[in-house]
Amino acid sequence: MALAAFDTLEFVDTLEKAGIPEPQARAMSVAVRKAYESSDVATKGDIAVVRNDMEKLGTELRHEIGDLRHEIGDLRKDMDAKLANMKFELLRWFFGIAVAQTGLLVALKFWV
To answer: Which of 23, 24, 26, 33 is nearest to 12 (CA)?
Structure first.
């Protein structure tokens, strides 16, 4: 993450103007800079980038969810069509067997 620039020269100048000797001001500047650089803090820019990425992902997810809903709808239609076809086939077999059984019973009645 990019941190805002830390002006060590201005920091040293400010400390010297406050009456701190230059070597001590430089040492304090180095210590503050190291602490500043080692901190893992998000800047407003970093947060804006992450927010933008999250918005893009949210939009993509909404589109994918919409596509999945359409696919599920298509699968339901296919399943309904196959189920209707299976019902028709089952009824055809049922009535075919009923007619064959009736014919067999009639034939047995006349032959016996």
So the answer is: 26
Name the region of 20 (left: φ>0; alpha: ψ -120 to 50; beta: rest).
beta
Task: Give how far the C-alpha of residue 75 lies from the chain's centroid of Cα atoms, to the nearest Å.
Answer: 22
CA-wise closest residue to 16 among 25, 8, 7: 25
**Measured torsion, CA atoms of residues 17, 27, 11, 49, in degrees rounded to the nearest 10:** -170
Helix (H) or strand (E) holding 41: none
Give tens-digit pLDDT for 50-102. Answer: 999 999 999 999 999 999 999 999 999 999 999 999 999 999 999 999 999 99
Dihedral angle over CA of 106, 110, 111, 112, nearest 10: 100
60/82 Cα distance (integer angstroms): 33
| Domain ranges within the chain, ordered by starting residue | 1-41
Residue 4 pLDDT more than 80? no
Q: What is the rounded average pLDDT of the residues 11-40?
A: 83
